[in-house]
């Protein structure tokens, strides 16, 4: 580590950098990566983390190595660490989750999607995917990430790579990408529940609310029932065709969520935005239950269906929440956090190298996503605005 440190302390700017945030970064790194068994693993975790923070533009392994050292062997060492070295992502993410959650108890748990375009068909999990946000079919990897909403800040603390059935059922692909036997095809609703279960195991936080956009998931009912079984409150964006049963006198026949909400008179609500500002809006809302449908169950718990009124860009999300007796301000303010989730994933892609993993292995993908998450969390929660960006040729 001393060789790397000496490379970044030869100029006055680097000296200031070392004083301002080198020490906090080392302390943070030693905490987050303390589960790594070997000294050399912790050394290269710190170097990769620092490279992500100081390298401007594309975060290729070569550019990260150049940013932290002039030693040409560092490139191969970093590549070996992220793609080949055996270290447990779950242990690192557990430490990152606890470290971040200590900043604020009982946060909202937001689940977002990272669409990672790729060339060719060799990158692990790459497949053709219709991205609703862009309206395009892309050749990409698809990751689901869970983020802790800590006031005005959201930080990523876990990821799942979506494997299509073509990948899950191809022994040769699985072997080449080193996909564990435990990893199989899971629909997106099941991946979301998996992330919730992992966070629940890491945190004693029964009151945290799950926030997720599943507006394109035809079987979102399975997610809702799964969250209800776990006694986990939620605010979930649902497809307009979701069949719901209205609650109230004189209404019994199931109807689509969109048709029901569109027939309601707007109510005024004040949305609290993460930056402290407030926005007045109209909400169309109705109390509903979900028919048993494909689950074969009777009508379930009482939920609230709601959507904003007025001019918006694109379709209005329809939200379903278990917080049926909370104020409209509370549930709409929670739903508004999803915009921040999308913004964080965009920042991870633009500024922290989320798109830039060059390897093709399953463990390497998770290693890279873990390191990117740790870099983003350090910058956001330790307020390291003084971290210098270095242009590397």
Quick recap of the structure?
The chain is α+β, with helices and mostly antiparallel strands. 41% of the residues lie in helices and 21% in strands. It has helices at 2-7, 12-32, 39-54, 61-68, 73-83, 89-101, 165-168, 171-177, 188-202, 220-229, 257-262, 328-351, 362-381, and strands at 108-117, 127-131, 136-150, 153-161, 210-213, 234-238, 243-246, 255-256, 267-272, 278-289, 303-308, 318-321.
Characterization of this structure:
It is built from 13 helices and twelve strands. The chain has 393 residues and is α+β, with helices and mostly antiparallel strands. It has a domain at 2-88 and 359-381. Strands 1, 2, 3, 4, 5, 6, 7, 8, 9, 10, 11 and 12 form a twelve-stranded mixed beta sheet that branches. β7 and β8 form a beta hairpin. α3 packs across α5 and α9 (188-202) runs parallel beside α10. The radius of gyration is 23 Å and the shape is globular. It starts with a helix and ends in a 12-residue tail after the last helix. 41% of the residues are buried. Residues 1-19 have low confidence and may be disordered.
